Amino acid sequence: MPLSRPALLLRTGSRAVQDARAWVRAACREIDRTDLLECAEFGVSELVSNALFHGTAPVTIRMRGTVDHPRIEIRDASTEPPLLPVPLALDDEDEVLLTVGRGLSIVASVSDAWGADIDASGKTVWFTPASEIDEGDGVEGVITGPSGAPPKPERLGSETVEVSILGVPLALYRGFQHHFRELRREVRLLSLAHADDYPLAASLSALFGSLERQLLDGLGHGQLSGVIGSGPDHDRETADLHVRMPRSAADTVRRFLDMLDLIDEFCRQERLLVLARPPEQVTFQRWFLGEYLTQAAGGRPTRWSAAQMAGPRF
């Protein structure tokens, strides 16, 4: 089944590395990839040590990616990029465990791919463990981000439509934002690390970028900042949103809806180490994005409470 083991919050102190190693051993066994145990443990030892010594709490470890290419991620709250690796010879475990401060050479030598993804709230250093240690310099890492920066807005042009999204439940919208960011990051890392194995990931990553520029920029960084942030209305439960969008963005939205269903199916088929969307998010996302499609085609807005009773339209 898809990996459901929750991320591990690492305590500061001498046992953090041992806890992380035990966690990753269990995670590899859970997906029947015991062939990766040695490299996974070596990589985790280095990344957790670096995060504890050079990063900012909290520090967590989790596993994402696919069963064929599971990706181990160590996240901390520092936005400082990791040190680039230097050539390093691996002799035995004692040497590996004494290499704190020598960069990411170990990770490069025990990975099929690795890198760091930096956003506005911290960084995630990730690697896909190899089945055996590379005695050379290992693979080159890729640093991406900061993805948390607002995207450049689209030029709306003359063909636009005013869209009103009424009665948006802000708790579900926050969940949608989190889900969107997680999926965007997932397909981006798959396209960077294993493009040949997942050719669809690159096109999905481009679709995420297009949707964010066309639609979510104005919503995520404009009207909603007051009602879901720390302003005087931060405790509101619902909000009415009004945004002007390119009429052509309807095609992007329709493709995105199809993509969400496809990703859920990948999850159910155990092709991704993430869980499919819960039913309430499926209903909300279909309504929220469906409002763009309906109103771009000349229809009238449907308030969320009415949409719940009517059921999905797409």
From TrEMBL:
Signal peptide: none annotated. GO terms for molecular function: ATP binding; protein serine/threonine kinase activity. Gene3D superfamilies: Histidine kinase-like ATPase, C-terminal domain. Residues 137-156 are annotated as: Disordered. It comes from the Bacteria. Keywords: ATP-binding, Kinase, Nucleotide-binding, Serine/threonine-protein kinase, Transferase. Residues 16-128 form the Histidine kinase/HSP90-like ATPase domain. This is ATP-binding protein. It comes from Nocardioides luteus. The lineage of its organism: Bacteria, Bacillati, Actinomycetota, Actinomycetes, Propionibacteriales.
